[in-house]
Amino acid sequence: MRLRRVLPFMMGANLGTTITSVLAATANPIAAAMTVALFHVIFNVTGTLIWWPLRVIPLRIATWYGRLAGQKISYAFLFLIGVFLVVPVVGITLTELFMRLR
């Protein structure tokens, strides 16, 4: 299946997952739970509305990087390490530094 045909399903699935948080919030008597759930819905809808007209950008990046990783498997591992290890560690470190400056 072509990547450009899959992207709308991915965006729809992203929006669909927000229903789970809304359902879970209805079972919670604390009002903050529904506030967080509705923010999750609004955040994902806003993100979808922003990225839908710009969908060619992530499609081209994914196609380019897929070809690159297909030629050299080490690029795929570097991507995984970067996304799932380096980016979170940098984010947590920066958050801790800014919290200490307060």
Provide a descriptive summary of the structure in words.
- This protein has 102 residues and is mainly α.
- The chain folds into two domains: 1-71; 73-102.
- The protein has helices at residues 3-26, 31-51, 56-71, 73-101.
- The termini are far apart.
- The chain crosses the membrane at residues 37-54, 75-99.
- It is a multi-pass membrane protein.
- One of its GO terms (molecular function) is sodium:phosphate symporter activity.
- It is found in: Cell membrane.
- Residues 1-24 form the signal peptide.
Helix/strand order? HHHH
The chain-level structural class is mainly alpha
Helix content: over 70%
Number of strands: 0
Q: What is the global morphology?
A: flat
Topology of helices and strands:
Elements: H1 3-26, H2 31-51, H3 56-71, H4 73-101
Helix pairs in contact: 1-2, 3-4
In short:
This protein is an all-alpha fold and 102 residues long.
What keywords describe this structure?
single chain, 102 residues, mainly alpha, 2 domains, Na/Pi_transpt, transmembrane helix, transmembrane, sodium:phosphate symporter activity, membrane
